[in-house]
Structures are given as structure tokens and as C-alpha cells.
Amino acid sequence: MKITMPQLGETVTEGTVAQWLKKIGDPIEKYESFVEVTTDKVNAEVPSPVTGVLTEIIAKEGETVPIGALIAVIDEAIVKAAPAAASPVRATPSRNGGAVNPPDLLRGVSPAVRRLARERHVDLATLRGTGTNGRITADDVVAAAHEGPSAATAARTMETPEAKPGKSTYAAPVPGTTIPLSPARKIIAQRMVESKHTAPHAWTMVEVDVTSLWKWRASEKERFQREKGHPLTLLPFFIHAVVDALKAFPLMNARFTDQGIAVVKEIHVGLAVALDSNLIVPVIRDAGNLSISGLAIAAGKLIERARAGKLGADDLAGGTFTVNNTGANGSILSAPILNGGQAGIVTMEAVVKRPVVVEGDAIAIRSMMNVCLSLDHRVVDGAIASAFLVNLKKSLEAMGPTGAL
Fold first, then answer.
1. How many domains does the chain have?
2. Which helix (H) or strand (E) holds 243?
3. Whether 116 and 68 share a structural domain
């Protein structure tokens, strides 16, 4: 059977073979993952549609090919005795801290699982996988992390910069050297250039007094965390206000096409999430139907899955407008690049206390936040963009302790 590059998202036109999880001559069970593919949106393991033997590899690791292009051949006619699967054993570090996995097995660990292992400080060489044929899964890494790092992991954490929390998955930057581009970084670069060249970007901003909102959120966050199991940040309040503004100004929830401006009925909000080596935008679907509480839970789940490398292609497709919480990193002003096919992207910047002139020409200390909007000027003119931001500002400033989550 001829295997082609799968469609991983409605706007994705090509994919890069990140790594082959099987080699030529290996038996493959139906639905067993045999190759990992990278796009600008997601890393995904591709399951086999049939049971057979991998007889030919067309696309090499690191090669980028169009959707639908031939990448491999699996022969269903060849029957080989598959090696006995390892007995399911809950993943634990080996007692002596030594390696228990051969290099070939470690080679089959997906980038998402490797990233999770780095974040949790788990040495993959010390784990016993519970996946097919003993492969190490994300659940194995999480289980091992709960038992604490092995001696080998602890030693590696002391020796290598990339094992420390917060470090990039790229090699440590050294002045005078060139860091190779990962497949995802190459595609992101291409998409960003395409967006800037295709859509004429315009930019505007407003400042918002979120003093009442800040107090409301502070009074509710402990109860919400206890009852819902997710943190209550400023983000869901912001998304809720964005959704209301999109309903009032539907042209902001549109996209430019050769046939005209397509105004989208559904409101699917993309949420920019920064990972160690790239930025992805999972989508909160039908955000217009969710309460503030519902948005907090939906966003929390997406962010958790994004950082664990568990997002699928469907999680990253179909966004109609994007929100970026740049303030989480201390930013007070941003000019974001549009997500391809969308008319706008809005940022919530850091909340800063500063003196502000209030009614009666008095000066008071208020919690202030800048809100920045980049827009596709083919779709939206300045008047509509400004009205959208004013609506968003009023919604945020009206939120307070009398509101409902």
C-alpha cells in the first residue's frame, strides 16, 4: 500500500518527516505509529492504515513534501512473525540508575515525549516503556516523574544546560556558531514571512483600567482552583471580552479571499502558547458559547496538553481570531504577526500599577493594561478596528465582583 503525507490541519499544505519510527523490513500493525511528521502547527505520530511490512521509505528524515505526496510503501502481502510484545510494566527508573533501553528503542521515542522528559527531568534510558513493543510513552514519563528523578537524570541535570527548567530545546547558543533550524522552526519562519508579505499589517492599541477586574479575579482564584482544578488567570476574562467584541464587530472574525471577504459564523479563538522551541496556537472552539469559567477550563486544558506535547492536528485547526497573552512574560507593548487567514490578533499586556487621572481631576493608583491589535488592512479599516478595541476596553472595565463566572 502506498502511504502519502497526511493532511494535518485544514490550512496545512506540506509536512516534514521528523523521524521514522520503523525501518525497512519491520512489521507494522494496523493503527501502530510508524512515522512522525512535523508541520508549523503540530508534531504528530502517523498510524498505519494497514497491517504489513514497511518495504520502502521514499521521504527521508528532514525532508519536506506536499500533502498527498508518497512517503513510504507498506506491503500487506508479506507476513512476518512480529516480535513478542513486552509485558506491560509500569514505567519506573531502574534501581541502579543505569540504562535499560537499547539505542534503537530510544531512537523511536517521539520528540513530544523527549520534550516532556526534559521538562520533568526524567532519563529516558532508565525507563521501561508500556507502549507497543516496549516503546516509551508520555504516560510512562509522567509516571516516572512522580517517583522522582533517577541518579542518572540528576547527574545529567547538573552537567547539561538543556536539562535545566526553562531552557530551550535548541542546543545552547554559543557566540560565533550557527544553530541548525528544526523542521518546525523552518516552517514557522516561512509562514511568518508569508503572513507579512501577503497581509498588509496595521496596528493600534488602547489602555485599559482593569482595577475592578483584577480585584474580582483575586477574590475568586483560590475557590476556582479548589473547585475546578484549573488556575483562574486574567486570560479567560480577556477572551470573554474579545468574544463579545467579535460579536459586535463580525468583520474582525473574517478572512480575505479572492472571491471576497468571508465573514465566519463560528467564533473559534486561537490561543498562542509558547513552548521551549516554538510557538503553537491551539483553538478554543465555539468560544462564543462558553462562560468565563468554561473558557478558563478550556484554556487550561489546552495549555496543559500543549506543554505535554499531546495536541493533535484538530486542536490546532480552524481558528478564526487569535489571542496572545504576551503580558505573562512582562511585555507592555507588542506588534504581533497575524496568524495566516485571520483578520486580527490581539494581545493582553502586563498589568502595571501606575498613577492615573480619574474623575474630578484626581490622581489615583490604578491597575492598567495595554491591549494591542494587529489587523489585516485588506479586511478591516482603522475605524472598525478602533471601535472593536473600544468595545473590548469597555467590557473589561465593566467587569467586577458583581459579575458571574
1. 3
2. helix 235-248
3. no
159 and 192 both lie in a single domain: no
On whether both 9 and 145 belong to a single domain, the answer is no
Q: Is 75 a catalytic residue?
A: no
> How far is it, in rounded angstroms, from Cα 354 to Cα 371?
16
- The grid cell for 191 is 509562514
Domain around 159: 103-163
Q: Partners of 366 in the beta sheet?
A: 354
Is-contact 164 276, C-beta < 8 A? no
Q: Which residues contact 25 (CB under 8 A, 6 or more apart)?
A: 53, 54, 55
CA atoms within 13 A of residue 94's CA, in its CB half-sphere: 14
Note the pLDDT tens digit of each residue in 312-371: 777 888 999 999 999 999 999 999 999 989 999 999 999 999 999 998 889 999 999 999
Element spanning 140, H or E: helix 138-146
Which helix (H) or strand (E) element contains residue 211?
A: helix 211-228
Residue 170 maps to a domain: no
For residues 18 and 130, membership in a common domain is answered with: no
Is residue 139 among the annotated active site residues? no
Q: Are residues 142 and 240 in the same domain?
A: no
Confirm whether 88 is domain-assigned. no
SS3 333: coil
Q: Which of 75, 209, 244, 377 is catalytic?
A: 377
The alpha carbon of 376 is separated from its chain's Cα centroid by a whole number of angstroms, namely 23
CA geometry: angle 282, 236, 281, nearest 5 deg = 15
Which segments of the chain have a pLDDT < 50? 81-98, 149-169
Give this prediction's pTM.
Answer: 0.68
Same domain? For 62 and 108 the reply is no
